[in-house]
Amino acid sequence: MAKVTVDGIEVEVPNGSSVIQACEAAGKEIPRFCYHERLSVAGNCRMCLVEVEKVPKPVSSCSYPVADGMVVKTDSPMARNGRRGVMEFLLINHPLDCPICDQGGECDLQDEAVAYGADHSRYMEEKRAVKEKHWGPLVKTVMTRCIQCTRCIRFATEIAGVPELGATNRGENMEVGTYVEKALTTELSGNLIDLCPVGALTSRPYAFVTRPWELRKTDSVDVLDAVGASIRVDARGPEILRVLPRTNEAVNEEWLADRSRFAPVDAQKRRRLDRPWVKRDGALKQAEWVDAFKAIADRLKGVSGERIGAVAGDLVDAESVVALKDLMTALGSANLDCRQDGAAINPVRREFYTFNTTIAGIEEADALLIIGSNPRLEAPVLNARIRKRSLLGKFPIGVIGEKADLTYGYTHLGDGPGAIGNLGDFAEVLSKAERPMLILGRGALARPDGAAILGATWRLAESSGMLEEGWNGFNLLHRFGGQVGALDLGFVPGAGPGGGKDLADMLDGGVDVLWLLGADEFDVSRIPAGTFVIYQGHHGDRAAARADVILPGATYLEKDATYVNTEGRVQRGRLAVHPPGEAREDWRIIRAASELLGHKLSYDDLAGVRRRLAAVNPVFGTVATLARRGWADTAAPGNGGALDDTPFAPTPANYWQVGTIGRASPTMAECAATYLPAAAPSLAAE
Amino acid sequence: MSNGETAAHGEHGAPGDAHGAHAEPASFSFDEASEAQIATILKRYPAGKQASAVIPLLYVVQKQMGRQTGSTWVPRVGMDAVAERLGMAPIRVYEVATFYFMFNTKPVGRYHLQVCGTTPCWLRGSDEVLRACKDAGKLKGYGDTSEDELFTLSEVECMGACVNAPMIAVDDDYYEDLDYDRTVRLIESLRRGVRPPPGSTTGRQTSAPEGGPLVLTEIPHYDVAAAPAAGKAEE
């Protein structure tokens, strides 16, 4: 530890820290443009100048290591004059187009210019202008505004793992770009917008939409992938205008994947179900809530419980799942399923279906095996964490399944489940590792031998020392934020004699009435013609077209709701805007329906539902934090028959148009058209 | 707006204009002579540090383009070939190639006239040399390539030949002690395909004074007895 005095405040910081870190420890804010805690130090903007005693010149605090006994002055005339000089140079070529710049109001350069800028410019010569660049449909560039801090270059190279950005040419002609014009091939490109300290990189869909001070900010949680990133929703009136990440070291650090950032914004207003619909004479007609409930009650009359089924979708909140489960139980039905993909998930114990190592725990692991998963497309932020760990070295990674570009190096061990029992040299790597982990993709279980794959993987985890007290290296990577919550609430076919039917049985004519809670991800055409379909959800997607009654629900940004991410972390989303039109929060819809169906649910406020949640599964009593899970009881989740050595199906390359919200977003459609020109499905008519 | 841009931008090749016959080639592969050079170059660097060879390899590309097309420049596909050979991201090679102006990222004429305009040359009349290059090479100014694609004119900073200023470098050869007429003669000679011997154009012996050496013209007598003894040299 080194003792450093910053403006008279004595702080102790670890040896090797930089002066800027010491200043932060002392609570002194140092202006900076190029320095960023999560990126390598570049030291090229020179804005963070401070005075260090016995050093004749001002030093850039981000790239200057501390020494014991160092005395730093952050607000001395030398430091202030140094920063003023730097600011004057930065403003030489920076255009004065703040009034038409989207960064206005949240611009680092603007803020620092207030503190260190002069009231006029001494520069009379011509300013530099840089030709426009095209970086894809998400990031808008106005490179004349660039102050060449190189944060974007370092992010692309270090965090995203796509070294496509660079600084070409030199001196005054230096330009940040791709040189060969191309759209950035990363699922994390939106983060460049946050990182850019000026208005050079801004959001293309958000261009010229609003000013930051007009926005109402709501902290919430993302569900469009299973990471459950912390987000901030910026809305104006009834409109969601953008979604930004919030710092959450345990989950997403400060990154957010592109689908989570851009899809909900324009999907909020498109293809929404904003009023109830009831099918009359073969066509869906607009209806009142009470008519819709009556239509359901009429149809349910005389139908026995076991002929009723319910399917929960991928983006559902825990409150509506527990309400629907309670309603189904009251109706006498155990036909519940939340596994639309047919994944052979064993819901008996939580360890069988969660990411037990935790996302932050990846950084402690020292070997990784990925089975049937492409984390880059399934959970880009989690993939960035794997890459972060990989860059630290001594982290052998093996992959069974698709040979994809994961942004880090790995050994390919095989294409199909056969490789699980035959790892070759990698078996020794795993057994030598102290904290080995594996990631099993949910997609790997969505095949006929899924149960066998789960069993074999668990046994592999057990035999290679992944299941120990204090360390659990078995991880199932889900794809959406509603999947674990439904499993936690046991939204699966009821056990016991004559138990409930699963989705396949329900689609094979096992039920007469099917209640779909946001369930769109299965082949809707398999629903038998005579089945009465109730669709409760927020977007008019695949299943809504087949429905007999549509109950308009709220998206995850339009309700106070609880979600569980792939780690099993219970998180609360908050209402940012109200649902459109007649649409309502989903658990309230079910509660209202229950009354008309004659099985009134016992709770009628949010606190009541949440008490019920905690009663069904105590994990819902702990929000946001997650206990570290070791594993002593290594009982396997069952054998499940023989393995079939068919290669694992690759994760669909279309990362953008996934889920009802991704499919409803024109921005996501544009991304798919840009990055997958061959197979871009066009948006269906609204 | 963005749709139109996508379509318009996707088709672009490398930046810069394609110049007549010297258009951006569709592909680039090292020829035999280059491969031999690369093998020598790569041996200089320890295993795993091959990326250090990026600058020498870019020269190899540039020379090969000169041999093959008569224009010593580095096309984008050539940078890609270097990136692939050294296991680097292409953008890292683009950064290096565009940073150093010794690499021509646009096609140049057969003879690259690099006029030094730094103070010693300028004081000794580099403006006249420049004018001669423009007149004789039919060039409009710095950065221009003549219509017959024989000459490209560039301004360079000090090449370290101030003693014989003013000078120009034609590709790798220095021509020194120039004035308007001698520069015109040099360019006319190049136009005929004859490269005059490099060095001073006035017949000066390396950097000796005009008309021949003035000092050390004979080997002086060296008196061993008068020389200080080795041990006393520092006193």
TrEMBL record, chain A:
Database matches in Gene3D superfamilies: 3.10.20.740, 3.30.200.210, 3.30.70.20, 3.40.50.740
UniProt KW 4Fe-4S keyword: yes
GO cellular component, one term: membrane
Cofactor binding, per record: Binds 1 [2Fe-2S] cluster per subunit.
Keywords, comma-separated and alphabetical: 2Fe-2S, 4Fe-4S, Iron, Iron-sulfur, Metal-binding, NAD, Quinone, Translocase
PROSITE patterns tied to this protein: 2FE2S_FER_2, 4FE4S_HC3, 4FE4S_MOW_BIS_MGD, COMPLEX1_75K_1, COMPLEX1_75K_2, COMPLEX1_75K_3, PROKAR_LIPOPROTEIN
Residues in 2Fe-2S ferredoxin-type domain copies: 2-78
Domain 4Fe-4S Mo/W bis-MGD-type: 215-271
TM stretches of this protein: none
Segments forming domain 4Fe-4S His(Cys)3-ligated-type: 78-117
Keyword rRNA processing belongs to the record: no
Enzyme nomenclature, EC number: 7.1.1.-
SMART domains registered for this protein in UniProt: NADH-G_4Fe-4S_3
Annotated GO MF terms: 2 iron, 2 sulfur cluster binding; 4 iron, 4 sulfur cluster binding; metal ion binding; NADH dehydrogenase (ubiquinone) activity; oxidoreductase activity, acting on NAD(P)H; quinone binding
UniProt cross-references to NCBIfam families, sorted A to Z: NuoG
Record function comment: NDH-1 shuttles electrons from NADH, via FMN and iron-sulfur (Fe-S) centers, to quinones in the respiratory chain. Couples the redox reaction to proton translocation (for every two electrons transferred, four hydrogen ions are translocated across the cytoplasmic membrane), and thus conserves the redox energy in a proton gradient.
Protein family: Belongs to the complex I 75 kDa subunit family.
Protein name as catalogued: NADH-quinone oxidoreductase
Organism, scientific name: Roseomonas acroporae
Gene assigned in the entry: nuoG
